[in-house]
Amino acid sequence: MFSQPLHIALATHRGSPDMSDIDVMSAARVLEWMRGADERTRRALLTSVAEPGDLRIAQLVADHGVLETIERIALPDVMPELHARLGARLTRSDPVSDLEKVRRLGGRLVIPGDLEWPTQLDDLGIATPWALWIRGSQNLRIAMLRSVAVVGARACTTYGARIASDMASDLGSAGWAVVSGGAFGIDAAAHRGALAVNGITAAVLACGVDVSYPPRNESMFESIGRDGFLISEVAPGAVPHRARFLVRNRVIAALTRGTVVIEAAVRSGSLATARAALDLDRPVLGTPGPITSPLSSGVHQILRNGAHLVTSAAEVIEAVGELGQDLAPIPEGARTHLDRIDSVARAVLDAFPSQGVTSASDVAREAGVTANEVLVALTRLELEGLVERRSGGWSIVRRAVLGGASY
Fold first, then answer.
1. Global pTM value
2. Which of 74, 188, 233, 290 lies at a 20 to 30 A Cα distance from 2?
3. Is the pLDDT score of 353 beyond 80?
4. Beta-carbon contacts of residue 33 (< 8 Å; ≥ 6 apart)
5. Is pLDDT of 175 > 90?
6. For residues 333 and 256, what is the distance between their CA atoms, to the nearest angstrom?
């Protein structure tokens, strides 16, 4: 706890108050209030005062705790630069109102130490969020135990949107939560794909959980808040800006078991999520696209640098799931008649002329097999419908393309 009594810290501001005096006294009242508040209320205040990812504030919280960090913001003579930068925000904050507002929306503030806190976020170290505002009825920690981030371009192609939607639907059907950023393009396609199969999806926002941004996704956000999770580091009512978009990417990466990039240009913001996942030693995966598409160039670059190439939800689950258990099926082509015959029968079939009738002895000689072997093979091939007996011998049935060759 900061050792200097509050009345001493304010002593130099006695007399005729100017605007800064009023701010100091307002900050002092907030500080006195926070000294009697619980940890959740203090952290709620901090989410409206400090920007997410502010490492200076994060270090103060780690070293001294939330209350003493608030003291350093409130008292002008302790850390003047910090007070000048954030003091005004302190006096305008109302954490009790924020907590009540989110409660009415069916939400809450989750803080480290709560049973619902996703402990994988602690892998961020000093950059761990000091709290998360949540809208959603389920338990966040449990839901995020099997979760995958699906991110990509806002101005995606029809191909990218289809891949994101199908992959998210398949992940949701397999019991995996889909996490993204709520933006246009790949993000929205992934969220809607998961919602379509009643899967769990979470949108990590760069604004308050009561703010719909982009506004055209408002109905999607309502569905996510009802059936999944809206998540933010900033207090209700906060509006998005560029820095908040960038810093929330680390939360998307840290919440999940791995990050899939569907479409991304070389300078796409979604690659920041991939870099954050790499920093956390989480799998980074990418879906290939046309080599002529600029929107796939960023994905191709991370694939060249070691990301896992994936083409299905099953392959994603294999990469991020339990070793040796969540294995993707090995792709197989369609089985043909040739898959059901042995090597002798194949040799006999290959020995047939492309047209006309031939004798069994001619086939045996051409195939290099005995008379007995050719008779057995011809019987098997006839049962498979590949050859037929005719007057004067045998002929091949020209009815299908088998194993790449026409017969």
1. 0.80
2. 233
3. yes
4. none
5. yes
6. 33
- Burial label, 21 (beta-carbon count in 10 A; 0-12, 13-18, 19+): middle
> Look-up: residue for tokens 């209700």?
236
pLDDT bin (cut points 50, 70, 90) of residue 290 is very high
Q: pLDDT-based confidence at 356, cuts 50/70/90?
A: confident
Hey, what domains does the chain have and what are their CATH numbers? 6-93 (no CATH), 119-320 (3.40.50.450), 337-406 (1.10.10.10)
Residue 179 three-state SS: strand
| Token reading at 270 | 């979604």
- Find where tokens 């400090």 sit: 50
Token reading at 214: 């982009």
Beta bridge partners of 148: 178
Q: What is the DSSP string of 262-275?
A: -S--TT-THHHHHH
For CA atoms 135, 163, 310, 153, give the dihedral sign. negative
Would you say 144 and 251 are in contact if contact means Cβ atoms under 8 Å apart? no
Please answer whether residues 178 and 168 qualify as being in contact, where contact means their C-beta atoms are separated by less than 8 angstroms: yes
